[in-house]
Amino acid sequence: MKKYIYTIALVSLSLLVTSCGSDDKKVTTDNSTPIAVKVKAVQADGNNPFVTASGKIQAENSADLSTRMMGFVNKVYVNVGDKVSKGQLLMSINNADLQAKRAQVNAGITEATAAYNNAEKDYNRFKSLFAEKSASQKEMDDMTAHFEMAKARLEAANQMKNEVNAQFKYANITAPFNGVVTSKNIEAGDMANPGMPLISVEAPGKFEVMAMVPESEISQIKKGTEVSVVVKSINETLKGKVTEVSTSAKNTGGQFLVKVALDKTDAKILSGMFTTVQFPVAKKATASTMILIPTSAIVEKGQLTGVYTVSQSNTAVLRWLRLGRTFGDNVEVLSGLSAKESYIVSAEGKLYNGAKISIK
Fold this sequence. Notes:
Layout: H1 2-31, E1 35-41, E2 43-45, E3 50-59, E4 62-65, E5 71-76, E6 83-84, E7 89-93, H2 96-131, H3 137-171, E8 172-174, E9 179-184, E10 191-192, E11 199-202, E12 207-214, E13 226-231, E14 236-245, E15 255-262, E16 274-282, E17 290-294, E18 299-301, E19 304-310, E20 316-320, E21 322-327, E22 330-335, E23 342-347, E24 357-359
Parallel strand pairs: 1-24
Antiparallel strand pairs: 1-23, 2-17, 3-12, 3-16, 4-11, 5-7, 5-10, 6-9, 7-8, 9-11, 12-15, 13-14, 13-16, 14-15, 17-22, 18-19, 19-20, 21-22
Helix pairs in contact: 2-3
Family: Belongs to the membrane fusion protein (MFP) (TC 8.A.1) family.
Signal peptide: 1-22
Pfam families: Beta-barrel_RND_2 (PF25954), BSH_CzcB (PF25973)
């Protein structure tokens, strides 16, 4: 019996060794086929001796319209891309409750007006009687108080009507200026909530750039400075002028906001396009060279970000990076990668540390 058990154990061990050897051989076979990759050398933005900053185009005059009341949307009268005029009705919200309240207020005004007119007549009558010494001072004081209270109730009723009328303005959303509808975030039947962006409108023709300048260079940027604005997506370089320089970076992560008004141009620029603003100010000697790589090459694992580089033995090596600002499709590398090093842009297979690669 014991001999039989030993035989089974030896057979099982033999199968296990055979299975492991088969797996190892398979892995070796997979590793023997290099993964074809495209490689690119790191480009350092250190050739430009002037201060540059990334920015985004936006319309000078734009508005995100919302409401102060809650209710279902009856109808939306515009679509994205429609041209609208100042005061044009854009959408309406169900206001049945407001109509009922206005009816109550109107009834209250009618009642208060009747009470005021009657109190005014009594007041004038007693005023004459008091002048003729046919009414006492106490009676005159009571009648005056009654008249003043009736007058106050009528004024309160009229002010309540003004309040209801103001609420109606939030039930009918109108265009604040001539412009174009750039977004519509609600449809008929949806519930509109107070403060919720419903429709966005912007006036075309006048654009500005919101740029972020690092603290090491902000002291050199002055209001009124003429700058060049590069819009890479349309391959255009526009002219502009600095109209505003922020004096605080408390809420912008150490970057100072600079506003640039663009000169009138025939270029097909749109809100949201990324730009590079070139200030005619020499970089400080301590300014470091900026390293940019495309965001498509970035590898993310949890909270870590990195990029695959090429080793001397033609294998993939994952290099962890510390990233900075984003410039359109590129991102700034603060540490982990130096100039003239190569990194993998794309691969015809799944990369991992130590994977054999072949550079195309």
